Amino acid sequence: MAKKQKKNTGGTGGTPATVALAAAGTAYTLHAYEHDPATPSYGEEAAEALGVSPDRVFKTLVADVDGELTVAVVPVAGQLDLKALAAAVGGKRAAMADPAAAERTTGYVRGGISPLGQRKRLRTVLDASASGHPTICISAGRRGLEVELSPDDLADLTNAVLAPIGRG
After folding, report:
1. I want to staple 114 with a disulfide (CB 3.0 to 4.6 A). Which of 39, 109, 139, 166 is the partner?
2. Within 10 A of 101 (CB to CB), how many other CB atoms are there?
3. Separation between Cα atoms, residue 163 and residue 126, nearest integer Å
4. pLDDT for 15-30, tens place per residue?
5. Which residues contact 163 (CB under 8 A, 6 or more apart)?
6. Burial grade of 22 (CB within 10 A; 0-12, 13-18, 19 or more)
7. What is the model's pTM?
8. How far is the C-alpha of 84 from the C-alpha of 153, rounded, in Å?
9. Distance between CA 126 and CA 59 in Å, rounded?
10. CA-CA distance, 149 to 91, in Å (whole number)?
């Protein structure tokens, strides 16, 4: 069962993502759950633990678009369309980034990468399906911790481009 906490103040023990949300004065709900290290899909685990439809839980992926790391935020129920991601940012080719480079650049570990509070702010693309929901869940910066917020707030905070980059 997930624990809920309304609008975290970003005090001690916060992640860079929750600190960024608090600093911006953005309304959000924090959801913690017991993470199983053996799980094959962190996002699907989060959806199940939170009792939320997988189309409302979004995963943060880091791709290399023409030599520049780019964040893609897509529903956990689907996959990232790399060609669509490249097109969304005016690029030609996209491939998944090296996991070590993604971790080093964002400051987060794989399975806990958040589009918020990254060590180096990366260009971000949010799948257009997010706008069909009043709120979505994204990683709060560590495995077993999700933040629920409006897709508009996420797009504003990350300067994200909205584009149809998910498939499936």
Report:
1. 139
2. 12
3. 6
4. 999 999 999 999 999 9
5. 84, 85, 87, 88, 125, 126, 127, 128
6. middle
7. 0.90
8. 23
9. 10
10. 29
